[in-house]
Amino acid sequence: MQSDLLETIELIKQTPNDGLIREIYDSRLYQKVQQLLPGALTYNVNTDGAPMSKSSSRSFWPIQLHINELNPRVRFRNVILGGLFVTSKEPKPEFMKMYLSIFIDQAKDLMNNGVNFTHRLTGKKINYKFYCLLLCMDSVARPVVQFRVQFNGHYGCSWCYAYGFYDGSAMRYPMCRIDPK
Predict the structure, then answer these.
(1) pTM for this structure?
(2) Of 37, 96, 167, 174, which one's alpha carbon is 20 to 30 angstroms from that of 112?
(3) DSSP 3-state of 111
């Protein structure tokens, strides 16, 4: 995996930006991070609840990480498990805050101190610092993680504090020029 990582990092450096987005490292966000933090490794985080089995009332909530600088065929076969808990009910935001705070402390350590590697061929020591590029979750998990109201509640928009209203059976959020606080 080390050789794939080093090859992909070199490929990213050598690939000119033609404006097309084929991969995460073609995005403006990734390029901005690399501009500010040259040589940084980035990862994406996902968390979501999943049933233990079809007949079980228990579910598990993994924290999964993908290292963006790995080639996609390697990246998605080597998902890192950053945390896991099993529950018999939907977690409350207070619990999710505690659960994620442990992960966040470890993520800060990876960001500040990095991880030391020894290059297999050259013997050169390399320190890589890891930065979270994005968090991906569905509309059910997002409010639990954000400590917000569920997506179908009056203040359930994940991006603003607009008061929603019911239009038939659907919750609608008006477009506002200024975010109500």
Answers:
(1) 0.82
(2) 96
(3) helix
